[in-house]
């Protein structure tokens, strides 16, 4: 039987994919309206929170909205319903809606916004570029009786541990002898109370990153044969993973810039896309992407060897700078990020289904892109 859900559980689902620590400093992510213990039965997933989206949430019976773009991007100095934006805030409060936003943390997340875009735009061999932060790695060491090693390894196999580049479950084992004396209150799996026990053990060593190591420790303890398993947690000086919003990869086959523009136009479902290129007939293969307004990152894309950069909101003067550097840019508009609506909907449905939670996740049908092509 599925259990009911809360705002906090929706936040936990989102941050399992996109930890808040991944956000750029000052980005107003997080819970903007509502309470963490507030019950949630239906979540509406949207790119932007606009008055039409709030009306949609009311119509479909949602009690929470997930948005990519923060609903309160600039804090108001006064609150008056004479201002349309603040009138929308009043409607959110009146109807008891919770609103949670994941912005640059979702952009940077592995398997998040820019990985979705890289896949949609046909990129292979993708990696990140332009890191804005680094995530600490930890080495976890636990001591297991020799006969239980395989059992623990199999129990941990489904979990994302010890990821080093393109390799997962990278671990190390050292055999030795462990000793302990259970006291009168203990319930030892091996040995007797008040008696020295010596056990042939294996020290198993794993790697886990900042966002996951506490959960990995819990997984180890939950599947360990001992009543009081030891798990050493050691920060690694050389084990920091870059956190970056941009992605860069290559096309399966080289394409002319102009042909790739047409492909992006078709994929975007728009009547047109802007582009900059010193040579539209040039064949390109190495492509960088950063959803939303990422024009300030073009030097980092260029430094990583990009021949074409996909991003939105390129302004006139930056366009001249990009052209002078010989880089081609395709600008499908900021709303290129609306890919998050079906992707986050699918992710949240799968997460809550796997956690046996009674919650409905629905896609917003409102097009919040303010721009049109005539």
TrEMBL record:
> What Gene Ontology cellular component terms go with this record?
cytoplasm
Its quaternary structure? Homohexamer.
Q: Name one Pfam family in it.
A: DUF34_NIF3
User: Which Gene Ontology terms cover its molecular function?
Assistant: metal ion binding
- What family is this protein classified in? Belongs to the GTP cyclohydrolase I type 2/NIF3 family.
Q: Which NCBIfam families match?
A: YbgI_SA1388 (TIGR00486)
Q: Which UniProt keywords apply?
A: Metal-binding
What name does this protein carry?
GTP cyclohydrolase 1 type 2 homolog
Q: Does the keyword Metal-binding apply?
A: yes
Is Heme one of the keywords UniProt gives this record? no
